[in-house]
Amino acid sequence: MTNLAATGGVPGPGRIGRVVIGDLLKRAARRFPDRVAVTDGARQATFTELERDANRFANYLAARGMKPGEKIATICNNSVEFVKALFGIHRAGLVWVPVNTMLPPADMDYILDHAEVRFALIDDNLHAQPERRAALQTRGIDLIAVDLVGLAGAAGLKSFGDLLQGRSEIEPDVDIDDRDLAMIIYTSGTTSRPKGAMHCHLAVVMAVMSNCIEMQLSRDDGITGQFPLFHCAGHVLLLSYLSVGGRMALMRGFDPVACMEAIVRDRLTVFVGLSLMYQAILDHPRRKEFDLSGLRCCIYTMAPMGRPLLERAMADLCPNFVLSSGQTEMYPATTMSRPEVQLERFGNYWGESLIVNETAIMDDNGNLLPRGEIGELVHRGPNVMMGYYKDPKATEQARKFGWHHTGDLALIDGNGEVLFLDRKKDMIKSGGENVASVRIEETLLAHPSVQNAAVVGLPHPQWGEAVSAFVKLKPGAAASEAEIAEHCRKSLGGFQMPKLVRIVEEMPMTATGKLRKVELRQAYADYFAQERA
Fold first, then answer.
1. Can you name the CATH fold of 427-532?
2. Could you tell me if 466 and 460 are in contact, meaning their C-beta atoms sit under 8 angstroms apart?
3. What residues does each domain of the chain span?
4. What is the architecture of the domain spanning 215-319?
5. How far, in Å, CA of 109 to CA of 99, rounded?
6. Do strands 158-159 and 181-187 pair parallel, antiparallel, or not at all (unpaired)?
């Protein structure tokens, strides 16, 4: 400190040199005040409007007595109001806790309790769901509503838009450090309950800068926004495009016609989606009505795309396709493939490491392995999470040997590309959602006729992986596969529901009595391909 002072320096950057999420919008608004930043169907919002209302919401939160570091949840699907609220939360120095709106009320309640949330923003149509509303009332959460369908007033909720009226448009004076906790995003793990990945402002901003460079973004770019903003992927894409003066066309869920309309209407240059979304657009009877030639790049994520579909999409939509991959614990993306090699390598190739993080393969003893050898995929860089909230043991396990452990088995080939092989932890990635097999197994075992259960992800041409359940019934018990599926439907979210329920006579077991799920995966690997045929 003395030596620094002697050179005329200061001990910390303070506001002059800080790195925080809220400043991304502020700088963009100063550069591009009148440019459209987000659209929501026919609605538009400029950078100035977002900046003004973000400050208004931040000032409202401060007036409510919320202090920097306190938690605020959002239970929202994509909307202009959600974007404004997000930046207001970041601007106020609060800790954002997004809730996946597709989770069942019990998981929502767990997240709110675990994160100690006392204040939340919710879409009025989600609040209207009886089970969700009852859970929120029981917990006593202080709510304000995004009035999407006009139900807020009747429910006695204060409207987000009304609360902004009369608030100051000047940014609140809040000291925020780049290592301050900015968000806790809960991700389904291999345990029965979600784990909260903690990220600081620096991690998110560094991920944004990396994406801007790797995707070669410019102020002329616009991207489809069907990915939910409560996911890290949707959030970081929004920040990345707005940072350079680009735009996002917000959507609540995926509809192929709505996507094509937005590409044309909003002059979008980038489409990002799952393989099944590309398939739906290409197969849609109205496809030829829309001129999609403005697309300069198409990004697919979560799972590789089969060669026939990729070749068709490159010929019909855009010649430049890239696969991007990451995870909530490593603010995305971590790897990306190059468009010029798309037709050279097929299978689970995830591409090269991005500039924001290092990527390596490690054995169980912490030794880094050379190219071509199989081990666990590990990363390190400024985009790694601070840890799991209230779970020091899981944090320690995830950070062994000074690297973040993904739980994925992979190798790095001679071209420097990651080839995913299998998962060390039983996580299923289906339709863009992480599904913990343990959670489904617990539900299955709660059925009075089920003795044993195993849940695996099977290859699926649309969903990447399909949640597939195998059960063994208790001696003398009777139940049909349809009855077991209906039992699951009562307590699981839609994306957690098994797409296959199969009653088996015996489960494959090891000599020590552990399930051998690999045998189920191998035996049924072609099930959904045969079903489609």
1. GMP Synthetase; Chain A, domain 3 (3.30.300)
2. yes
3. 1-176, 215-319, 427-532
4. 3-Layer(aba) Sandwich (3.40)
5. 10
6. unpaired
Angle between helix 481-489 and 437-445 (nearest 10): 110
Asked if domains 1-176 and 215-319 share a fold, the reply is yes
pTM for the full predicted model: 0.84
Q: Which CATH architecture has domain 1-176?
A: 3-Layer(aba) Sandwich (3.40)
**What distance in Å separates the CA atoms of residue 24 and residue 244, rounded to the nearest whole number?**
9
Contacts with 482 (C-beta within 8 Å, 6 or more apart), sequence order: 501
Residue 197 is which amino acid? A
Q: Which residues pair with 514 in a beta bridge?
A: none
Per-residue pLDDT of the chain (533 residues; tens, 9 = 90+): 457 667 777 767 778 889 999 999 999 999 999 999 999 999 999 999 999 999 999 999 999 999 999 999 999 999 999 999 999 999 999 999 999 998 889 889 999 999 999 999 999 999 999 999 999 999 999 999 999 999 999 999 999 999 999 999 999 999 999 999 999 999 864 345 789 999 999 999 999 999 999 999 999 999 999 999 999 999 999 999 999 999 999 999 999 999 999 999 999 999 999 888 998 999 999 999 999 999 999 999 877 787 888 999 999 999 999 999 999 999 999 999 989 888 887 777 899 999 999 999 999 999 999 999 989 999 999 999 999 999 999 999 999 999 999 988 889 999 999 988 767 767 788 887 878 777 888 899 889 999 889 999 998 988 888 999 999 998 899 999 999 999 999 989 888 999 999 999 998 875 445 677 878 888 898 899 765 54
